[in-house]
Amino acid sequence: ILQSHYQQIRITFDYTHFDSLDPQYKNHSSLLRSRILPDVQNFWEQALRVARLPTALKINPEFCPYYTSTTHIEPGIANTDLVIFLHANNEDVCGQNEILAAAESCQKDQYDRPTVGITYICMDEMDINNDKGIDEIKHLLIHEVAHILGLRAADMAFYRYRNGAPRTPRPLNLTEVTCVDGTKANITRPAENTLQMGFTNRGNRYYELVTPTVQTVVQNQFNCSKIKGARLENQSENNCFGSHWEARLFTSETVSAIATPTPQYLSPLTLAALEDSGWYIANYTQASISPFGHGAGCPFVEKDCIVDGKVPPWGKDYFCNSILGEGAPMKCDPMHRYKSRCDLVD
């Protein structure tokens, strides 16, 4: 597909399930409809261009049983490239491990690009009483839409080169893989040109996305030309490889695994990963530089954050060694935006 044929992606949110929410969530629903989700939609529509669907998007009920009208199946949803169904307070998602939201895709086009997804929102975890809380919800949902767009371990084997050829040879086959937690799984493994396994200097296994644009962005982020790719989270993931950026390196990135009270940034890294999927062309003016570790050099990436109980030179602006407690001193947070205390636990 010629790049000149790519146009701004069109995203449709389906709010139907909000109509059956308990009255206590009326303000949550109203705020999501009128302010938060329109901002999320506008962000991604400005951030990505796509080869648009030429006809109405028809939901396949076998793959996506989330549709809210039979018209979604036939004749389909016109003038859209991605439909996202919104569910609130799903019992299987909410109330477990302080989960705020979750998302997945369920249908693809002929080039394997996700075209239908679902986002689960846990209303009881939402703070809608101040602008800071509302902004955190917006970034959380920008994060979840990134997963639907293709930033998931389950989608990486389907990534393509810009000319449309699969990065992982077809047909896709199941193979035995050692997961980040050391267990074995028979799954589809993305090719080495997309995903590679590595070990930290402490022997902890991880996987990293090694596609070309991602590699360039990560090397620029840390000012380290030795880096092969972007490391994926290897803790508390419910999949073999990881679907979030490693918090040790990318804690201020919107698509890191851990929500923090400090600002998070949708950085060029996330846009690079989506662009390297072969499905999108990114508009990098929509990205913000993630301050955590920016320009810190190779030791920041390769070495320990605390050495012999002390913060080493490469970690001075980002790590701390004071034990959490009332007597812990107030210092500048790693993003240099707030006063904070060290959260190191003895």
UniProtKB/TrEMBL annotation:
Gene3D superfamilies assigned to the protein according to its UniProt record, in alphabetical order: 3.10.170.20, Leishmanolysin , domain 2 (3.90.132.10)
Any Gene Ontology biological process: cell adhesion
Biological classification of the source: Eukaryota, Sar, Stramenopiles, Ochrophyta, Bacillariophyta
Keyword Metal-binding part of the UniProt annotation: yes
Binding locations of Zn(2+): H143, H147, H244
Name of this protein: Leishmanolysin-like peptidase
Keywords in alphabetical order: Hydrolase, Metal-binding, Metalloprotease, Protease, Zinc
Family membership noted in the UniProt record: Belongs to the peptidase M8 family.
Active-site residue list: E144
Pfam families listed in its UniProt record: Peptidase_M8
InterPro entries reported in the protein's UniProt record: Peptidase_M8
Cofactors, names only: Zn(2+)
GO cellular component terms given for this protein: cytoplasm; membrane
Gene Ontology MF terms: metal ion binding; metalloendopeptidase activity
Note on cofactor: Binds 1 zinc ion per subunit.
Keyword Hydrolase: yes
